[in-house]
Amino acid sequence: MTELFTRRNIVIGASSAAVLAAAAFEGVRLIGKRRAPTPYDDLLARLDDRDADAQIGEAVLAGFDNFDPKTVAAEMRQRLERKSLPEVMLDDVRGGRVMEAGGWVLPETLALLCALAAKAEA
Amino acid sequence: MSAFIDARNVPSGTILEPDLVIVGGGPAGIAMALALANTPLRVVLLESGGMTLDTKTQALYDAGETGAPYLSLEASRIRFLGGGTNIWGGWCRPMDNIDFEERAWMPYSGWPFGVAALKPYYPRAQVLCEAGPWLYEKAEQWSPEMGPMLAFGEGGVVNRWFQFSKMRGSELPTQFGVRYADELKRVRNLSTYLYANVTRLGLAPGGARIDTLDVAALGGHKFKIKPKAVVLAMGAVEIARLMLASNDVMAPGVGNANDLVGRYFADHPIPRNIATMILFDGKLAPYYLGNQTIKGGIMRAGLFPSEKYRRTREVMDSSITIESKTELDDLGKAALAATAAGLGVDGGNAVAYSLGGGCEVTPDPDRRFTLENERDALGMAKLKLHMRIADSDFAHFRATLKELGRQLLASRTGMLRLNLKERAQWLEGLDWGNHHMGTTRAHSDPKKGVVDANLQVHGVANLYVAGSAVYPTYGAVNPTINLIALALRLVDHLKGALR
Fold first, then answer.
1. Closest listed residue to residue B36, CA positions, set B23, B22, B24
2. Which of A56, A94, A98 lies at the smallest CB-CB distance from B334?
3. Given a cut of 80, is residue A115 above it in pLDDT?
4. Who among B276, B334, B412 is closest to A55 (CB)?
5. What is the residue range of B131's domain?
6. Structural domain of residue A47, as residue ranges?
7. Does A89 touch chain B (CB under 8 A)?
8. What is the ipTM score, two decimals?
9. How many A×B Cβ pairs under 8 Å?
10. Which of A40, B12, B249, B322 shows the smallest number of beta carbons within 10 Å?
11. In this structure, are A76 and A98 located in the same domain?
């Protein structure tokens, strides 16, 4: 009678299971992150978590009657052309440029980038 | 040492003839009575209640109300020796310079004197409140031992300090009636009457001075007082009532030729959970969340709009306190993650706190008391309050909170959510400070104020008002220590005027 739980079999089994689990996880992750290209991908790449940012963006858009993504994107590109996002955010708040998202007081540039993220999801 | 006199035992028909009558045994009246000790003046102090709460006396506050939701006056005032200090929280803080200034953008603003007129009296007021050594902003010299103060950087909101009336073990802050009863009894030139209600200010013919006060006790005894001068120190509600109801000589009431008595009533709105503040590093010194003893003072830090910010941005006063930890919803968690990442700070240890506070209201002539036809147990006309609160009052407070949010971001310290926006949200669960102010506002022009810079009623030579009833504008700090300073200033004036 062959020994089923040999050390070799356990190692092979565990390794196979780990590989399968990792592949499954990565597959779901890759499928989850797949998004249609948008005209603002260069800007949205600056954001950390597109899903969460889109949620904030929906709250930002609730404060707008007319939101023109093209105009906003052009403005954002100009602001971010020579500065990093943290620098632009600090410029915003030091200059009094803040916006509300569901009551949260946010730097204007972050709020508008989130609004673009929400538009991209729409 | 002379015992207090129970007005219910004073024979009807008695006539007292002191130099000065102080009507009202709250903090203003008690402070004045003590300050007049050992002067040549013979002083009578009248208190409507006794030494403890009595429901029949308390029912004399029963009044009608219309307009914006407000507290029942029966529940928000206390009618026994010590007055409002029987239920106060002990919060002390002097008013700011700007509170006294005329501001073009704030209608009806401007006191007939500045804060400099009160400064000499604050130290004694602090002692009477048993609020410890005068520290306030000096506390910042020692508070870092308990943890750093919040660093907001440049901007409109700054750290400020409250001091608290002394707690003795589990006792509440200093209750003036209990604390000062023995001292009042020891004042040889003072007679204190309990259960003594003034039901009429009797003007002399022509109305230029008070001749007689009618005093009644529940139960039927009535007597009169013919003083040289009278100080009304019963609080903004009852002062207005007595002046309006004393209308037998002058039809509009005493001191009411310009229809100002009872108008401009105010209180401090106390909305709950006004904002959620996140601190990225989660660290908050304990003196923000509750009282801490620092160098002999019981201290708590709060957040206030600076005077410069109030002037330049034209916003009214407010005070913000940090109340307790709170949880974030999904949007809050997303906002935290996005903002911390965007600013390049670590939000992994962030903690959220609920903010509370109070705000100033705009002086409003239509927020007022009038008399009703219905009468109370003493035969006095009952009051009716028409309460109002302007949307702009909430908007000013919201603007200051938004500025705090901006500063938290600019200093990379944290961030803030404004929890209230629409009027209905502000009014939902709105509490009030029980800080009754206005109704006999001070102004040097009789057409704009009931009392002058000396707190004398315009046109009535021997009638004065002590207390927050004289506030033309209100600030956002608790009134007790400030109204005591006002009352002590009035004492100095009376010492000269009655010489």
1. B22
2. A56
3. yes
4. B334
5. 5-497
6. 41-121
7. yes
8. 0.93
9. 82
10. B12
11. yes
A47 and A26 assigned to the same domain: no
Looking at residue B273, which CATH number applies to its domain? Answer: 3.50.50.60
Could you list the beta-strand ranges (E) of B273-397.
Answer: 275-279, 292-294, 297-305, 318-326, 351-359, 368-375, 381-387
Does residue A94 share a domain with residue A113?
yes
The reply to whether A118 touches chain B by the CB within 8 Å rule is: no
pLDDT tens digits along A20-68: 555 555 544 444 556 788 889 999 999 989 999 999 999 999 999 999 9
Check if the beta carbon of residue B26 is closer than 8 Å to that of residue B84: yes
Given CB atoms, is B417 within the 8 Å cutoff of chain A? yes
Q: What angle do CA B300, B301, B306 make, to 5 degrees?
A: 140
pTM of this prediction exceeds 0.80: yes
Q: Does B155 touch chain A (CB under 8 A)?
A: no
> Are A19 and A78 members of one domain?
no
CB contact set of A113 (below 8 Å; sequence gap of 6+): A43, A44, A46, A47, A53, A57, A76, A85
How many Å lie between the alpha carbon of A24 and the closest alpha carbon of chain B? 27
Q: Do A53 and A104 belong to one domain?
A: yes
Q: Classify the phi-psi angles of B61: left when phi > 0, otherwise alpha if psi is within -120 to 50, otherwise beta.
A: alpha
Cα–Cα distance, B123 to B486 (Å, whole number): 12
Q: Which of B276, B338, B410 sits opposite A110 (nearest CB)?
A: B338
Is there a single domain that holds both residue A12 and residue A48? no
Do A83 and A115 belong together in one domain? yes
Q: In this structure, are A67 and A51 located in the same domain?
A: yes
Name the nearest CA neighbour of B460 among B246, B163, B155.
B246
Structural domains counted in chain B: 1
- pLDDT tens digits for B398-448? 999 999 999 999 999 999 999 999 999 999 989 999 999 999 999 999 999
Strands B351-359 and B318-326: antiparallel
Distance, first Cα to last Cα, chain A: 62
Q: Report the domain count for chain A.
A: 2
| A5-23 core/surface letters (b: 16 or more CB in 10 A; e: else) | eeeeeeeeeeeeeeeeeee
